[in-house]
Amino acid sequence: MPSVDTPEFEPTWTSLRRHQTPQWLIDAKFGMYCHWGLGSIQQQPGCEDYTPEQAVEYFTAEAFDPAEWAELFEKTGAKFAGPICWHGSPFLHWDSKLDDFNSVKQNPHRDIMGELATAIRARGLKFFGSFHSISDDGWMERAMEAVDLHHPDVFWVDASFGGTKQSHHLKIVHQSHYLGPDESTPYDPDAPNPGHFPPGGIERLSDHNQRAFLAYLFNDAQRRGADIEFIYKSHDIPPGVGMRDLENGLLDHVAYDPWMTDVDMNISPDWNVHGWFHREGLPLRSAANIVRALVDIVSKNGILLLNVPPLPDGSFSDEVRGTLDAVGQWLKVHGEAIYGASPWSVFGEGPTVIKPLNPGSYHHNDHFATTLFTPEDIRLTVNGTSLYATCLGEPVGGRVVVQALSTNFKVMPDTLKNVSLLGSDAPLAWEHGDDGLVIDLPDGFTSSPLANVFKIETL
């Protein structure tokens, strides 16, 4: 926890690098947030062309219950959670004194950010707030007001904070040229504007204002003795300040910095269909997809931020609730392999290959939830003196082999004490040697439909 006697942060990148990612966030591994607001109206059939001023007339939120949201977050197993606080228009989700176009003075006449902050913290969770609308004109004052009112434990910004999801060399000249409408076109400085961003690039903060805001945010937390984090899209600010985030992305390696990925529960059919908010007809990621992604992410030193789309009225569909309940039930049994766990020397093994969508960028490489793991895909985490080997597919043939634990690698002979299957009392027969750890599944073995976790106790 920061000391009130520590010197204040100065608005320089050198000073801001003194900020440390809080251990509670590194241990949390799993958070949730909700795209819910005017976009929930604008994505409904017949409302696609509504202006924010038109959409707010229908944003009545008659079923919005912050206590119910917080209970859902907790039961699902999230350790931090919250709403989008500002997204895609001037409409603010708190009781602003700077702009009357907010959720208190307009429909639904509720302090969405404040009510959720209270309800979520009452459950013992950390409060998360995301900020997607950014312009140098007025953004600073509004963001500072949100910090002063509700002090998010996680302050998350979208790509427009810095204007990029790629490394800067891919976005010189005109930022609108860095990707085509399908987000896969190579950079071409002579190409016409593809329409993905407006001419001159997306709205973004200047380097000066980035530094000024971060100094304000970190000093506010330091004065309160609070451990907070700032989350930004990769490459938006220099490394070593806050935590980088990927969007609908997975890594192919163990990262040496803790990182986050925000993953949408919606599955869009193509690049032209926007998800994130509830949209009729869009399929959802399954509980198996979510759990296996979580395990893969944690094995690579990451944190999953799952977007959950409420209905326009503020309630959650039965399908969403059922999926999240399955995730929560799995975490109750297998949470020791996730919460507080660390990556091991290697993330695991298996044939499934995860590739960057573009050179140097892992954003959106799982945008369509197309990463399908096999029984041979195994992920490794460590907690205390125990290793956890999680099978990302249902084991076949009555045997699981973890080749990464070969005695020819790092785990020496006679250093394994016991192997057990989380959620089962049945003893396991196992052997440890050159071929790795070979586990024979017990008679009558019933596989978890989401993921099977083997606890390996070591000396």
State the secondary-structure class.
Answer: alpha/beta
Q: In the CATH scheme, what's the topology name of the largest domain? A: TIM Barrel
- Give the terminus-to-terminus CA distance: 32 Å
Q: Enumerate the spans where pLDDT stays under 50 for 5 or more consecutive residues.
A: 166-201
Number of domains: 2
Count of DSSP-assigned helices: 10
Please list the strands of the largest sheet in the order they lie side by side: 1-2-3-4-5-6-7-8
Enzyme class: hydrolase
GO molecular function, one term: alpha-L-fucosidase activity
Protein name: alpha-L-fucosidase
Family: Belongs to the glycosyl hydrolase 29 family.
Please give a structural write-up.
- By secondary structure, the chain is of the alpha/beta class.
- It has helices at residues 13-16, 23-28, 38-42, 52-55, 66-76, 112-122, 139-150, 207-224, 287-299, 318-334; strands spanning 30-34, 80-86, 126-131, 154-157, 229-233, 243-247, 259-264, 302-307, 342-349, 378-383, 386-391, 399-402, 416-421, 429-433, 436-440, 452-458.
- Helix 5 packs across helix 6 (112-122), helix 5 (66-76) packs across helix 10 (318-334) and helix 7 runs parallel beside helix 8 (207-224).
- The model is unreliable at 166-201 (pLDDT under 50).
- It is globular and about 65 Å long.
